[in-house]
């Protein structure tokens, strides 16, 4: 390969084309190569497990390993080569196991030379010609294949959260494995790949529904909640990422210890669930989106627990570098990792003891932010919302869900929210909200102009809200509603949200701040023809275009 590495899975990819020397995110070539090898091994497992599934008995542990491993390769989740090597070893052992199972059951396997060798993590460079993203020489086929993989990564993340709460769906596993197996077919065509990508989108709808049921079944329906953004006097632990089960365990273990728990970035919506309100030491939200962690972790003063992405590698002078802990699929060299015990629990005592020795957080903001507008809560407000639309008090909704990121061009989203006419309501989910959730945008007849449904995975709530409005207004399709889509993306969970929306037939989605590098001109042409996808231009023109 001409490059040291090749990765173009996120919005911040180098030059809008691909990271080839070192990731803009901090990912080293070795880490990238290990991830390629891991995904290659997972494709082998998927090919075999798909055959086992056809005869009615897939290996459940294989499906779980595929999900965990894909999740570990998501942007800003795992930078630890030892941890990735362990994933690879497990994957090749699992490949042997499923092949052995197929042999015992006399199930014929398709030709697949790629699962015939036993790769070792340290040999990743040797395998690069066949494991690299660039192993597919045709840019269009490559982009469509990678779109399926990136969608599966997002799906795996959500499947992992649901599983942590005891919820699994064989259909989700089947869609992921089918996608990984299909992209390995030498004769797959571009048309077949487009259908495959939409099938991954179907899986996105299923997995977000699964996770919604897991979250609300365990923690209750999110409700309108004001969340404190100031600080208290006790030392605290800052929990970030998306995993609510980890938060539950941390809150239980910190009870009565004199240590408060604060959320950061995508953990903010935990405050909206009734279950977590019973913990008096669940103190509030500290800071903003993931990319501000360098400044905000420094002033937090206490330990930080990463349950999922987005982890930003600390700079050498980072004063908080000795206070970061990881768990789940997250990893970073030198950061202690809290393992999952056999019974599924975790022991956070090392983090709690660390917190006790720290100062209380330094206040960086004060006041409250409001959220909790997931589908159940909005359904309770439906009459009010429908009335406001019918009376003309609300002219339109704009879905501004998705991710935040470092690019200065993302100021666009702040400006877009500020300049929106006062009769427009923003529907949001994901960390994209931090670009405008603290602006004084006011309300319409008591309905806030920013309705935050929750984390990126709660984008499903926005779909449910759209379907509810379609019913209330008696329109056939969500495309006939007064809803515009201006979605910000960064990593692969946003990719699965986008594919899910496309699989539901949602049209006219604008995405930015830049289009994915894996959308070649030909792929974009297909998406424009089928779905009228577009990117952002400038605030004034886009408001004219989207709002009218
Ligand atoms: Fe580059 Fe994004 Fe890949 Fe990191 S995740 S290496 S920034 S494309
Ligand atoms: Fe954010 Fe990483 Fe995507 Fe969950 S935390 S939305 S970027």
List keywords for this structure.
binds FE4-S3 cluster, 3 domains, Substrate Binding Domain Of Dnak, Chain:A, Domain 2, 6-stranded parallel beta sheet, 548 residues, 16 strands, globular, Rossmann fold, binds iron/sulfur cluster, 17 helices, alpha/beta
How would you describe this structure to a colleague?
The chain has 548 residues and is α/β, with parallel strands linked by helices. The protein folds into 3 domains: 14-217, Substrate Binding Domain Of Dnak, Chain:A, Domain 2; 225-356, Rossmann fold (3-Layer(aba) Sandwich), CATH 3.40.50; 378-546, Rossmann fold (3-Layer(aba) Sandwich). It has helices spanning 29-54, 60-72, 81-104, 124-131, 139-164, 170-182, 190-219, 244-254, 293-300, 349-356, 375-380, 382-390, 411-419, 459-473, 492-503, 521-531, 539-547; strands at residues 225-228, 236-240, 260-263, 282-285, 304-306, 324-327, 337-338, 368-371, 396-399, 424-428, 443-444, 447-448, 450-452, 483-488, 509-512, 534-535. Helix 1 (29-54) runs parallel beside helix 3 and helix 2 (60-72) packs across helix 6. Bound molecules: iron/sulfur cluster and FE4-S3 cluster. FE4-S3 cluster is lined by residues 242, 265-266, 290, 309-310, 403, 430-431, 455-456, 490-491, 493-494.
């Amino acid at each position: 390969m001409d490059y040291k590495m090749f990765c173009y899975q996120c919005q911040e990819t180098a030059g809008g084309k691909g990271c080839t020397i070192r990731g803009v995110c901090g990912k080293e070539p070795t880490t990238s190569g290990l991830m390629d090898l891991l995904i290659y091994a997972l494709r082998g497992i998927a090919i075999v497990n798909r055959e086992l599934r056809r005869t009615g008995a897939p290996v459940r542990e294989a499906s779980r390993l595929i999900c965990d491993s894909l999740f570990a390769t998501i942007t800003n989740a795992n930078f630890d080569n030892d941890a990735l090597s362990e994933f690879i070893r497990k994957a090749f052992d699992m490949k042997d196991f499923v092949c052995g199972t197929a042999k015992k059951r006399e199930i014929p396997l398709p030709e697949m030379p790629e699962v015939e060798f036993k790769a070792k993590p340290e040999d990743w460079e040797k395998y690069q010609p066949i494991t690299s993203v660039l192993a597919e020489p045709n840019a269009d086929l490559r982009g469509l294949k990678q779109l399926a993989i990136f969608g599966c990564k997002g799906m795996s993340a959500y499947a992992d959260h649901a599983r942590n709460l005891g919820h699994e769906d064989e259909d989700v596993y089947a869609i992921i494995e089918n996608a990984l197996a299909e992209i390995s077919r030498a004769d797959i065509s571009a048309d077949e790949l487009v259908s495959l990508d939409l099938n991954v989108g179907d899986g996105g709808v299923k997995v977000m529904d699964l996770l919604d049921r897991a979250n609300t079944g365990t923690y209750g329906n999110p409700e309108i909640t004001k969340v404190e953004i100031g600080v208290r006097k006790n030392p605290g632990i800052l929990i970030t990422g998306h995993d609510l089960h980890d938060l539950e365990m941390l809150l239980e273990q910190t009870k009565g210890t004199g240590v408060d728990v604060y959320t950061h970035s995508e953990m903010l919506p935990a405050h909206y669930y009734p279950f977590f309100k019973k913990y008096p030491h669940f103190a509030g939200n500290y800071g903003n989106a993931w990319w501000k962690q360098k400044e905000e972790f420094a002033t937090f003063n206490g330990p930080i627990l990463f349950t999922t992405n987005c982890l930003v590698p600390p700079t050498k002078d980072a004063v908080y570098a000795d206070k970061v802990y990881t768990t789940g699929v997250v990893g970073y060299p030198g950061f202690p990792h809290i393992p999952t015990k056999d019974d599924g629990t975790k022991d956070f005592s090392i983090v709690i003891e660390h917190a006790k020795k720290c100062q209380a957080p330094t206040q960086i903001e004060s006041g409250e932010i409001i959220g909790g507008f997931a589908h159940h809560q909005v359904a309770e407000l439906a009459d009010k919302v429908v009335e406001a639309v019918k009376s003309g008090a609300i002219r339109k909704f704009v879905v501004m869900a998705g991710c935040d990121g470092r690019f200065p061009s993302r100021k666009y989203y702040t400006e877009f929210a500020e300049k929106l006419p006062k009769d427009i309501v923003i529907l949001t989910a994901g960390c994209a909200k931090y670009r405008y959730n603290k602006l004084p945008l006011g309300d319409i007849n008591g309905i806030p102009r920013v309705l935050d449904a929750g984390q990126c995975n709660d984008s499903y709530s926005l779909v449910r809200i759209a379907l509810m409005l379609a019913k209330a207004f008696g329109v056939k399709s969500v495309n006939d509603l007064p809803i515009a889509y201006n979605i910000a993306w960064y990593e692969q969970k946003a990719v699965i949200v986008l594919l899910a929306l496309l699989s539901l037939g949602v049209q006219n989605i604008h995405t930015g701040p830049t289009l994915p590098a894996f959308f070649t001109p030909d792929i974009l042409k297909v998406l424009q023809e089928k779905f009228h996808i577009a990117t952002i231009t400038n605030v004034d023109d886009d408001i004219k275009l989207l709002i009218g």
